[in-house]
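Budget justification note: compute hours in this period were largely spent on complex prediction jobs such as the one shown. Inputs:
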Amino acid sequence: MPIDLIALARECSVVPERSTDPGTVRDLLDRDGAAVLTGAGTDIDTAATVAATVLADRLVASARPIEVTDGGGMDRRHSADAARRMLPLHTDGFGYGAQAPDVFFLVCATPSAGDGLSFLVDQQRLLDVLAADPDGRELAEFARTHPVDQSEPGARPAIGPLALPLPSGASAVRRSADVRPTDDDPDPARTDRLLTLWQGILDGVGALAPRFALDAGSAIAIDNARLAHGRDAYTTPGRSLWRCWAWTDRAGGVPAGELWSDTRMLFALG
Ligand SMILES: [Fe+2]
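Corresponding output:
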């Protein structure tokens, strides 16, 4: 039987539950891979402290918050028309490899009105479901074992399986826009075929996943080792969120040097 994208989307999408209590949000984050803290605040101070508020003694390090807007700001990936396109499923900080933040927060300062909705897909669950399906087994095995190149152009090499093993024995499933066979891949045609299949499944499941809105003052916590996230296009000017990356005791280590909630240090360090 062919891979059923509608069934995968039903089984692997996550719509986060909400709570005003940070401890409840921490428990929901463990259970579901995402949760929303309501009434958190809208300013940079909220963004700078939300990781400690929610993660408490599990927090090892958090990075300086970055404002995410349609205007670009400090986010070098944004172009003028980026808002008018869907931001496909991805994970943050994949260029850091095993040292990518394992949890991150988005604090909603100014929501868009009626569009720009968010969606989440549990990639670990997706691999489990594929592994149990005779038609998906090869892909799941590939994602868990075959090294691929997810290096950002001009940054440090980021090579390893899509589901990158962490020192703890767990893995972090990464998703970048630009993934390709390594230079020494013994069978780049097979790798490219399976990467295309994986990207196609993620794009299909992302398009089918249920959407949810973030309200002003809400902070979403996302398990970045488990879930990929995306958002729909939006037209409301002035949409603004704070992004804050965090590393817990389950991360594969904390990068050296100054921590920002983007990958600028990968380039600064060469
Ligand atoms: Fe992101």
